[in-house]
Description:
Number of strands: 9
Order of helices and strands: EHEHEEEHEEEEH
Shape: globular
Largest sheet: 5 strands, mixed
Strand content: 25-35%
Helix content: 10-25%
Amino acid sequence: xxxxxxxxxxxxxxxxxxxxxxxxxxxxxxxxxxxxxxxxxxxxxxxxxxxxxxxxxxxxxxxxxxxxxxxxxxxxxxxxxxxxxxxxxxxxxxxxxxxxxxxxxxxxxxxxxxxxxxxxxxxxxxxxxxxxxxxxxxxxxxxxxxxxxxxx
Length: 152
Protein backbone atom coordinates (compact mmCIF):
# COMPACT_ATOMS: atom_id res chain seq x y z
CA UNK A 1 0.00 0.00 0.00
CA UNK A 2 1.32 3.45 -0.91
CA UNK A 3 1.13 5.91 1.99
CA UNK A 4 2.59 9.18 0.67
CA UNK A 5 5.17 10.78 -1.58
CA UNK A 6 8.46 10.76 0.33
CA UNK A 7 10.50 12.99 -1.95
CA UNK A 8 10.84 14.43 -5.42
CA UNK A 9 14.31 14.16 -6.96
CA UNK A 10 15.76 16.76 -9.31
CA UNK A 11 19.04 16.30 -11.14
CA UNK A 12 21.02 19.55 -11.08
CA UNK A 13 24.22 20.78 -12.71
CA UNK A 14 25.54 22.60 -9.61
CA UNK A 15 24.39 21.33 -6.22
CA UNK A 16 25.46 24.41 -4.26
CA UNK A 17 23.68 26.81 -6.62
CA UNK A 18 20.47 24.74 -6.62
CA UNK A 19 20.54 24.23 -2.86
CA UNK A 20 20.78 28.02 -2.49
CA UNK A 21 17.75 28.47 -4.76
CA UNK A 22 15.50 25.92 -3.03
CA UNK A 23 16.63 26.81 0.50
CA UNK A 24 17.32 30.54 0.54
CA UNK A 25 15.25 31.87 -2.35
CA UNK A 26 12.21 29.58 -1.82
CA UNK A 27 12.59 29.36 1.96
CA UNK A 28 13.29 25.67 2.58
CA UNK A 29 15.66 24.16 5.14
CA UNK A 30 18.73 22.46 3.65
CA UNK A 31 19.47 18.95 4.85
CA UNK A 32 22.99 17.72 4.33
CA UNK A 33 25.13 17.54 1.49
CA UNK A 34 26.69 14.18 0.88
CA UNK A 35 28.89 12.67 -1.77
CA UNK A 36 27.84 9.14 -2.69
CA UNK A 37 29.72 6.52 -4.68
CA UNK A 38 30.44 2.82 -4.65
CA UNK A 39 28.59 -0.39 -5.52
CA UNK A 40 25.25 0.55 -3.90
CA UNK A 41 25.11 3.89 -5.75
CA UNK A 42 26.22 2.20 -8.99
CA UNK A 43 23.37 -0.31 -8.57
CA UNK A 44 20.62 2.16 -7.67
CA UNK A 45 21.52 4.69 -10.40
CA UNK A 46 22.53 2.23 -13.10
CA UNK A 47 25.75 4.23 -13.71
CA UNK A 48 28.88 2.20 -12.84
CA UNK A 49 31.55 4.38 -11.22
CA UNK A 50 29.23 7.35 -10.71
CA UNK A 51 29.81 9.99 -8.03
CA UNK A 52 26.63 11.73 -6.88
CA UNK A 53 26.49 14.86 -4.75
CA UNK A 54 23.19 14.91 -2.85
CA UNK A 55 21.23 17.23 -0.57
CA UNK A 56 17.62 17.56 0.50
CA UNK A 57 15.37 20.54 1.18
CA UNK A 58 12.46 20.40 3.62
CA UNK A 59 9.74 23.01 3.59
CA UNK A 60 8.23 24.04 6.93
CA UNK A 61 4.87 22.33 6.84
CA UNK A 62 5.41 19.68 4.21
CA UNK A 63 6.30 16.05 4.64
CA UNK A 64 7.64 15.68 1.09
CA UNK A 65 11.32 16.45 0.60
CA UNK A 66 12.99 17.87 -2.50
CA UNK A 67 16.14 15.87 -3.26
CA UNK A 68 18.85 17.55 -5.31
CA UNK A 69 21.33 15.30 -7.13
CA UNK A 70 24.42 16.37 -9.01
CA UNK A 71 25.98 13.59 -11.08
CA UNK A 72 29.67 14.53 -11.10
CA UNK A 73 30.80 14.19 -14.71
CA UNK A 74 27.17 13.71 -15.81
CA UNK A 75 25.63 14.84 -19.04
CA UNK A 76 26.06 18.53 -19.90
CA UNK A 77 22.55 18.60 -21.42
CA UNK A 78 19.87 20.54 -19.55
CA UNK A 79 16.20 19.55 -19.68
CA UNK A 80 13.96 21.62 -21.91
CA UNK A 81 11.51 23.43 -19.57
CA UNK A 82 8.61 22.99 -22.02
CA UNK A 83 6.21 21.10 -19.79
CA UNK A 84 3.83 20.40 -22.65
CA UNK A 85 5.99 17.37 -23.52
CA UNK A 86 5.03 13.93 -22.25
CA UNK A 87 7.36 12.86 -19.46
CA UNK A 88 8.15 16.36 -18.24
CA UNK A 89 7.61 17.03 -14.54
CA UNK A 90 7.49 19.90 -12.12
CA UNK A 91 7.58 20.31 -8.37
CA UNK A 92 4.96 22.47 -6.64
CA UNK A 93 5.91 24.38 -3.49
CA UNK A 94 3.40 25.96 -1.10
CA UNK A 95 4.50 29.47 -0.15
CA UNK A 96 3.29 32.26 2.10
CA UNK A 97 3.77 35.74 0.65
CA UNK A 98 3.93 34.76 -3.00
CA UNK A 99 4.57 38.33 -4.16
CA UNK A 100 7.59 38.66 -1.83
CA UNK A 101 8.97 35.32 -3.07
CA UNK A 102 8.60 36.48 -6.68
CA UNK A 103 10.27 39.83 -5.86
CA UNK A 104 13.18 37.93 -4.28
CA UNK A 105 13.43 35.68 -7.34
CA UNK A 106 13.48 38.62 -9.73
CA UNK A 107 16.12 40.39 -7.60
CA UNK A 108 18.26 37.24 -7.85
CA UNK A 109 17.88 37.14 -11.64
CA UNK A 110 15.40 34.25 -11.52
CA UNK A 111 12.90 33.53 -14.24
CA UNK A 112 9.21 34.08 -13.45
CA UNK A 113 7.10 32.79 -16.34
CA UNK A 114 3.87 34.74 -15.83
CA UNK A 115 1.82 36.78 -13.43
CA UNK A 116 0.10 34.67 -10.74
CA UNK A 117 -3.37 33.34 -11.54
CA UNK A 118 -6.09 32.08 -9.21
CA UNK A 119 -7.02 28.43 -9.73
CA UNK A 120 -10.64 27.54 -10.40
CA UNK A 121 -12.33 24.33 -9.34
CA UNK A 122 -10.55 21.24 -8.06
CA UNK A 123 -8.01 20.58 -5.30
CA UNK A 124 -6.12 23.82 -6.03
CA UNK A 125 -9.26 25.99 -6.03
CA UNK A 126 -8.56 29.50 -4.75
CA UNK A 127 -4.77 29.13 -4.78
CA UNK A 128 -2.61 31.79 -6.45
CA UNK A 129 -0.29 29.93 -8.83
CA UNK A 130 2.72 30.80 -10.93
CA UNK A 131 5.51 28.89 -12.64
CA UNK A 132 9.17 29.83 -12.24
CA UNK A 133 12.38 28.21 -13.44
CA UNK A 134 15.10 26.96 -11.12
CA UNK A 135 18.80 27.51 -12.01
CA UNK A 136 18.74 24.50 -14.39
CA UNK A 137 15.48 25.65 -16.00
CA UNK A 138 13.39 23.03 -14.17
CA UNK A 139 9.83 24.26 -13.88
CA UNK A 140 8.69 24.94 -10.31
CA UNK A 141 5.10 25.85 -9.46
CA UNK A 142 4.63 28.23 -6.55
CA UNK A 143 1.25 27.97 -4.87
CA UNK A 144 -0.18 30.33 -2.27
CA UNK A 145 -3.28 28.84 -0.64
CA UNK A 146 -6.35 30.81 0.39
CA UNK A 147 -5.36 30.13 4.04
CA UNK A 148 -1.93 31.69 3.42
CA UNK A 149 -3.59 34.69 1.78
CA UNK A 150 -5.81 35.12 4.85
CA UNK A 151 -2.74 35.08 7.13
CA UNK A 152 -1.04 37.90 5.21
